[in-house]
Design a protein that fits this description.
alpha+beta; globular; 20% helix; FomD barrel-like fold
Length: 186
């Protein structure tokens, strides 16, 4: 097992008052904060959108943070492989708050392309993180449980949307703002 690609535990903070999304990659790197176009509470969690800055493949991210499921359900707008992806789902520990929501990446991910084919990603990083003690036993168990529930649900229901509907979590998507459309109001 190689862990040369393994990133430190990523912690993200969504500030609902400042409308910002801050990423902390640990190990001495400085946090990076990005402006959000929107962040709104939903019946199942939090829905947000922001532009990506200086990214080669991704131009825009729209995300639903789902605490009950331990998932960050993402849709990206961009080039290359991003254009062929329907969903990128991160497994995460989620701490909702009144003014800030904090997520902690638990390494395991599921990507689903536009044809409906899914792939579990980053199991090598997950295993290395467990071995190195970057995830507690509780977090490791939470990650596997959330991933199994997600994959089994997607397989049983025929897709991410169908499974989420089955779970009582219907998501709405705004999409990336176009150059001619006005940006969403804060």
């Amino acid at each position: 097992m190689t862990d040369w690609r393994m990133h430190p535990v990523r912690v993200e903070t969504v500030d609902l008052l400042a409308l910002t999304h801050t990423l902390e990659h640990g190990q001495g790197s400085a946090p990076v904060t990005y402006p959000l176009l929107w962040a709104e509470r939903t019946a199942s969690g939090l829905h947000l959108g922001r532009a990506f800055v200086n990214h080669q493949r991704i131009q825009f991210m729209e995300r639903h943070i789902l605490p009950e499921l331990g998932l960050l359900v993402n849709r990206f707008t961009g080039t290359d492989w991003i254009a062929h992806m329907s969903y990128y789902v991160d497994v995460a520990a989620i701490l909702p708050g009144e003014t800030q929501w904090v997520t902690r990446d638990l390494y395991l991910d599921l990507s689903v392309d536009t044809g409906g084919t899914g792939a579990v990603l980053d199991t090598d990083e997950y295993l290395a993180a467990v071995q190195k003690g970057l995830l507690s036993p509780q977090e490791a168990a939470q990650a596997l449980t959330a991933l199994h529930r997600l994959v089994n649900g997607v397989l049983a229901c025929g897709g991410v949307d169908a499974w989420l509907d089955h779970e009582g979590t219907a998501l709405t998507w705004r999409g990336a703002p176009s150059a001619t459309a006005p940006a969403p109001q804060r």
